Amino acid sequence: MTEPVPTLDVSLRPEHVAAAAIATDRFYAEIPEIAERYGARGREYAEHDHAYIFAWAVDAVAFDTPELFERNALWLHSVLTSRGFPHAWFVHTLELVQLVAVEQGLLSEADAARVVGDVIPRLPAMS
Amino acid sequence: MNGSTPHTPGLGSLPHEPYLATLVAGSPRKARFVLEDLLNQGHSVAAILEDVLTRAMESIGDLWQEGLLTVAQEHLASAMTEAQLAWLAPLLPVHASSSSLILLAGTPGELHGLGLRMLADVLSADGWRVLNLGSSVPEDDLVELVARRRPDVVGLSTALTTHLRDTRSIAAKLHALPDPPVVLLGGAAYLGNEDLAKRVGADLYASNAPQALELLRPMLERGLVAEDTNTDADVRPRDLALPDLRQFETASAARSVGVARLDMQGRILAANAAFERLAGGAVVGLPLESLVADAQRALVRKLVTGARPSWSDTFLGFAQDEEMVPVDRAARVGRVGGEVVVVIEPTTAEADRVNEGLLALVRDLVETQRSLETKTTELKAALDEVRSARLLLRKVQGILPICMACGRVRDDDDRHWVTMREYIAHTDAIALSHTYCPTCAASGPSE
Ligand code: B12
Question: What is the mean pLDDT of residues B405-430?
Fold first, then answer.
């Protein structure tokens, strides 16, 4: 990991960033190995990526185009797994996003299942 | 591959891999040669932009995505492609000019600007007046400019889907203007999905530059300027196979150096006045070889058939007994026929860069001249100060003639006698401050 942590995009809303912090906390609590593997910088990356994932899910619903979430999720899966991030961890990331998005009132349960949940079984198992 | 970007439909089936290889290797010269070869094979600039540059950049993205390229390599590939665009774009055939105006901009936060630039180039060759604001334009500034310039069309480019919300907000504001423009949306963020673009607020959507040209053609034709409206469609300049000659004329007309454009066989396609004067008459249609001395023919032939740089975009310049300005990358091939020098100026764009260099030099000279003038003024002021200080010194140090009757003192010459108070005030080295000495103060104010 030599690349700098990218700065958050102007288009990300505070509610996506807040949800990202919650999802990242939960991920780190459930899979402590990630902290050992990626350290403090890894955490910054994780929050950054989570914020985007929430934004994609919310946009997919807002524009009534589930493809928006699917294409981006598949893209991030490919970026991360090709750099050694385990497939199972990515699956769990999406599972947490589906939960936290509902808890935080970003998506209805039905939309979260339709947009996020639907993609999980279709992620290519690799890494 | 899963997750990678869908490939934009191209115009034909030009291979992009050789160009991609030069991007990955980071070798700009080879990149240029690959593109020149395609031109020499007769492929159009438009096809090269779409099938080669755009496709290769998509592959660069895929390679980065798969962890096979670093961000630095991705940046290098962008910069290299931008440089190729700079010399390719002026070779696009020019359509009749129109009064129709299109304003192009990247949505806020959007740093992907190459697509916009390509679109700006092809639209302007097609006859549009184009204002390209470049990437990441703030929403309110953009809307304000549109309200002021009132373009017929506003084209917004978005590569990242997270920018679609801002795009929707901009489109809504544009539609609410008293004289709303047609909103054209495009860029990788739409995933080739026209319905999505419509939901974001598109009046029109195009997935690539050639498609945008076709969509906008009716609007362009409405704005065609009078002299061009009668042009027979069959003989429009855009249908000529040859690269744009108008560009050539503008670039070379005013030059004192002879400039000629050659076709791929080394025959002269066009020449400026200086060239014909130096060559002693009309030259269009003649092979360049026929104009040079026997001894130089082999050299010229080698240049023409060596195909590096290619002739489709190359100017040759002739000058008599005159040191040529060494143009960036130009080959100065020496004297021909004992009195003529041949130089190669690879492209208008590169020549323009040289002109820019010259301008910068002139600006530097003017700057130096200005600072010299300021220094001279400062020196003059300092000299004046020294002079008056010397004068003052003389006054202060000298013997002061004083009238024994009225107490006036002599100022400068015999005709000017002033009171001591006036004299002191005049020297301006001493200021008088009104007060009472202790003795007078003790006897109270004299009034
Ligand atoms: C070069 C590049 C960059 C450069 C841009 C430099 C520059 N001066 O433009 C830099 C390094 C800055 C960059 C940054 C990033 N990039 Co980037 N980038 C690319 C890359 C490789 C090529 C883009 C390009 O120039 N293509 C060539 C042009 C000609 O094509 P185009 O933009 O698609 O335009 C054509 C059409 O779309 C259309 N069009 C475009 N605009 C418009 C507008 C209108 C009105 C119309 C009608 C048509 C139209 O016409 C054009 C010609 O046909 C793409 C890969 C890809 N597949 O696009 C990734 C890509 C877009 N980037 C990506 C990413 C992730 C990023 C970053 C987040 C991280 C990173 N990789 O550095 C940042 C984000 C920056 C930001 N906030 O915008 C991802 C996006 C993935 C996703 N799911 O959203 C891609 C797809 C790479 C990938 N496969 O992973 N990037």
Answer: 74
pTM greater than the 0.90 cutoff: no
Q: What is the mean pLDDT of the segment spanning B104-122?
A: 94
pLDDT above 70: residue B316: no
Residue with structure tokens 């092809």? B122
Q: How far is CA B84 from CA A101, A118, B75, B89, B169, in A?
A: 45, 43, 14, 8, 34
Chain A environment of B66 (Cβ under 8 Å): 78, 82
B333 and B357 belong to one structural domain:
no
Crossing angle between the packed helical segments B71-88 and B348-397, to the nearest 10 degrees: 100
Find, among A79, A80, A113, A103, the residue nearest to A26 by Cα.
A103
- Residue A124 has its nearest CB partner, among B2, B160, B193, at B2
Is A54 at the interface with chain B, CB within 8 A?
A: no
Q: Identify whether B289 is part of a domain.
A: yes
Q: What is the mean pLDDT of residues B134-150?
A: 92
Q: Are B342 and B269 in a shared domain?
A: yes
Nearest residue in A to B64, CA atom: A79
> Which atom of ligand 1 is nearest the CA belonging to B50?
53
- Helix and strand numbers (H, E) in chain A are 5, 0
What is the pLDDT at residue B94? 78
pLDDT in tens, B339-369: 233 343 434 444 455 555 555 655 666 676 7
Q: pLDDT band at residue B121, thresholds of 50, 70 and 90?
A: very high
Same domain, yes or no: B107 and B222: yes
Q: How many domains, chain B?
A: 5
Determine the distance in angstroms separating the CA of A16 from the nearest CA of chain B, rounded to an integer: 11
Domain containing residue B128: 94-229
Write the secondary structure of A80-103 as one string of H (helix), E (strand) and C (coil). HHCCCCCHHHHHHHHHHHHHHHHH
Which one of A3, A12, A56 has the shortest CB-CB distance to B161?
Answer: A56
Q: Residue B85 burial by CB count (10 A; 0-12/13-18/19+): exposed, middle or buried?
A: middle
Q: Is B4 within 8 Å of chain A by CB?
A: yes
B260 lies in a domain?
A: yes
Residues B254 and B296 both lie in one domain: yes
Out of A42-46, B319-323, B394-398, B428-432, the most confident range is A42-46
The pocket around ligand 1, CB under 6 angstroms, is made up of A 9, 72, 75; B 4-5, 8, 50, 54, 57-58, 60-62, 64-65, 71, 74-75, 78, 109-116, 118-119, 155-157, 159-161, 184-188, 206, 208-209, 212
Number of Cβ pairs closer than 8 Å across A and B? Answer: 68
Instruction: Check whether residue B284 and residue B385 sit in a common domain.
Output: no
Q: Which chain A residues are closer than 8 Å to B65 by Cβ?
A: 75, 78-79, 82
Same domain, B282 and B255: yes
Closest CA to B354 of B396, B325, B331, B377: B325
pLDDT of B397 reads 60
What atom in ligand 1 is closest to the CA of residue B160?
84
Domain assignment present for residue B402? The answer is no
B82/B160 same-domain check: no
Most confident residue range from A70-74, A83-87, B218-222, B239-243: A70-74
Structure tokens at B153: 């069309």
Over chain A, what is the mean pLDDT?
A: 90
Predicted local distance difference test score (pLDDT) of residue B228: 38
Q: What is the pLDDT of residues B259-304, one digit of tens each?
A: 666 555 566 766 767 667 666 778 788 876 676 656 556 555 555 5
Tokens representing A92 are 């769990």
- What mean pLDDT is reported for chain B? 74
Closest chain B residue to the Cα of A10, Cα to Cα: B109
- What CATH number does the domain containing B46 carry? 1.10.1240.10
